[in-house]
Amino acid sequence: MAASSTPADPAEGHEDGGAPGREPPRDVGDLPGATVRPLRRWEVPVALEIASGLAWRVLLIAAAGAVVVYVMGLLSAVLVPVVLAVIAASLLAPEAHALSRRFRGVPHALATALVLVAGIAVVGGVFYGVVLAFISGLPDLTTQLTASLTAIQEWLRTGPLRLGNEQFTAIGNQAIAYLQSSQAALASSAIGAVGTVGELFAEMLLTLFTLIFFIYNGRVVWRFVLAGVPQAARDRADVAGRRAFASLVGYTRATILVAAADAITAGVGLWLIGVPLVVPLAALIFFGAFVPTLGAVVSGVVAVLVALVSGGLTDALLVVALLLLVQNLEGYILQPLLLGRSIKLHPLAVVLPIACGLVLYGVPGALLAVPLVTVVDAGVRSLVRPSDADLDPATVDPLDPHSARPEWLGGDASPSPLRGRLAGLIRRRDA
């Protein structure tokens, strides 16, 4: 009987993996290291969890972007002159450095002063002449456009289409009233500009002061900016910044030359066709070239409407053919000749930023949208390009437009013979 009350052998407790002196596990949760989740009545779907995670991150980025845009709006009186100085430096800095390199006896400070004075005289004179020609011809141009819209409205109402409803007539009358009030709006804008002449003068001085240092000592300014980048990523950011500025150099140079070529070619063609107001129309085409795609469409429509009233349908069709010829010369000859493949943007990457800039900041936003996209495109391409990871920043010339995209210089696997010869010429010139 005493033997029956003897405790069980401790080894029996190990049959089910239990420890000595402990009861055998009765559930999975009792096993050592086991984790059992409590039963939940409902779980968040994986797709909804991922979507919500992306949503709050996108909202956070959008809020940060909105804050940046708001701060930029508050500092526009300082930011706009600095941006204009950067764009002007991309046009004048290569000439100043080229002058000091070719003529060893010319100090860099003197070369900067010479290029600055000559650039302001030439570019300022051209823009002043174009603006003056456009403003002086604006009243006659407005009259011609009003007559064009009136004639089109009358033809649509009495012609074969018979579109004589009141809503359509109201739209045409609103367009005519807008054109007739444009001169008054221009006059009020001029009065407002005179009222803020002190602010305008201060911004011009700030632009000139910043431009001088960007041309003379831009490398020192860039090194100061790079000091805020972590050391591990500083060389990569340096290469990306150099390629971005090179793209701005090419864009600014090509845009001015293309705008001048378009205005001269179109002006001569309009004069040969016999369209009136050749000078204001050429000036409008010149300014339209600074807003790619949209500017050409707007200036072309104005030229066609003026030709339609002055010479009829034949002259309007001739103007359409002329403008198509000018655009093809620009797209297939001028831009490849001036830029090659160093700057190339998709049409959507041109139109959408222009529309966003126009909505946010009006005409200045539309003018500065494409240069900004060009700079960002070149910088991002450099950051994701594997060959730029171990590249020495000193080998990238920020004043050469072809440095924006190194593949143009023969980095492709199978470059064409023409591109190979051009690449050789560029290397020998730089050497």
Task: Record the SSE blueprint.
Blueprint: H1 46-74, H2 76-102, H3 108-158, H4 166-195, H5 197-226, H6 231-273, H7 278-288, H8 294-339, H9 347-384, H10 417-430
Region (Disordered): 1-31, 392-419
Biased composition (Basic and acidic residues): 11-29
Family: Belongs to the autoinducer-2 exporter (AI-2E) (TC 2.A.86) family.
Word description of this protein:
The chain crosses the membrane at residues 74-93, 113-135, 190-216, 251-273, 279-309, 316-338, 350-376. InterPro entries: AI-2E-like. By secondary structure, this protein is mainly α. It has a domain at 76-228. Helices cover 74% and strands 0% of the residues. It has helices at 46-74, 76-102, 108-158, 166-195, 197-226, 231-273, 278-288, 294-339, 347-384, 417-430. The radius of gyration is 33 Å and the shape is globular. It starts with 45 loop residues before the first helix and ends with a helix. 24% of the residues are buried. Mean pLDDT is 76; it is low at 1-8, 10-18, 189-195 and 409-420.
Largest sheet: none
| Beta content | under 5%
The protein's oligomeric status is: single chain
Helix content: over 70%
Return residue spans where pLDDT drops below 50 for at least 5 consecutive residues.
Answer: 1-8, 10-18, 189-195, 409-420
How many strand units?
0
Overall average residue pLDDT: 76
Short summary of the structure?
By secondary structure, this protein is mainly α. Helix content is 74%, strand content 0%. It is a multi-pass membrane protein.
Defining traits:
transmembrane, mainly alpha, disordered N terminus, 431 residues
